Amino acid sequence: MKDMKRVRRAGAALFLALAMAAGTVGCGSNETASETDAADDGERFQGEYIITADEAKELVGDDNVVFVDARGSKQAILGTIDGAIATTWQELCTCEEGKAGDENWGKIPEADDLAERLGELGLSKEKEIVFVGETKDGWGDDARLLWELAAAGYENVKMIDGGYAAAKAAGVKTQHLASKPEKTEVEIDEIDNTHVMTTEELQANYDDYTIVDVRTDEEYDGAVLYDEAQGGHMPGAIHVRYTDMFKDDGTLKPNDEIVEMFEAAGVEKDDKVVAYCTGGIRSAYVQLVLEMCGYENTWNYDQSYWRWCVVGEVE
Question: Ranges for the Rhodanese domain (predicted)?
């Protein structure tokens, strides 16, 4: 205001007009930036378990954050996020004995057992746990691990939208080889089965659920690609491919587009939705996404088709 008064006192009306014009342009620029930010928000997926690669970049080096490369230590040799430890979904499941399709294979371990495994990895409940994986070109292993930790009572768990590829493209600091975990004590009172579907429940009440097969076209149509006991799909299963949730760059499509896709396939928000794949990995990602999109009754069938095709009817 002082500058404007000096302009008036000098009688430089022209300069005042120019200043006002400049101010108008400035306001217009700010409004455009806000509108752009809003548009960006509407064009990306948003949910409590998802962070962007740029957000992940800001967390690297934070002592209160543990990055977990869900692709495993062998893949981390080629590159992983700086400071990340590595593990696989198999290492945190009942996969030590038997084979895929066996009665107790591929499930969440008992609470004490899981607590010990997580403690060995240094995954304290007091830390923010950020998972990194591979999305459309993989099976979404990061989601399977996040889904399991959520069932174990972890409240601050995230995964990077677009996985490692997005993180690397965003300039997140990387390293070769995973870091060594710092062991810690973990306590798990019980496993929360709110989003965990069992074979036994499906066998008893199959018709109560909307079953969604999230595998590829080949798998749904009967191809045996991963040592399944037989090909096909669960009876009446709606087919919505896991990969259809992602954009070309591997990040998730916006929430409304994903909802439209599932609704177009016949999956409504008030349905009791059970997602399955081959071993409960891709379907864990789908369950979490549906939950974040407002589907209130969703489950991941963790043993999935590997087990079902041994004990249940298929089409």
Answer: 61-176, 205-310
Q: Region 235-245: what's the mean pLDDT?
A: 98
Q: Domains of the chain: which residue ranges?
A: 2-42, 50-175, 196-311
Domains 50-175 and 196-311 share a fold: yes
Predicted local distance difference test score (pLDDT) of residue 207: 98
What size, in residues, is the chain? 315
Q: What is the pLDDT of residues 218-232, one digit of tens each?
A: 999 999 999 999 999
Position 238 scores a pLDDT of 98
The domain defined by 50-175 folds into Oxidized Rhodanese; domain 1 (3.40.250)
DSSP H stretches of helix in the chain: 2-9, 13-42, 53-59, 73-76, 111-120, 141-151, 163-169, 199-205, 217-220, 255-265, 282-292, 304-311
Domain range 196-311, CATH class: alpha beta
pTM score, two decimals?
A: 0.87
With CA atoms as reference, report the closest residue to 249 among 176, 167, 139. Answer: 167
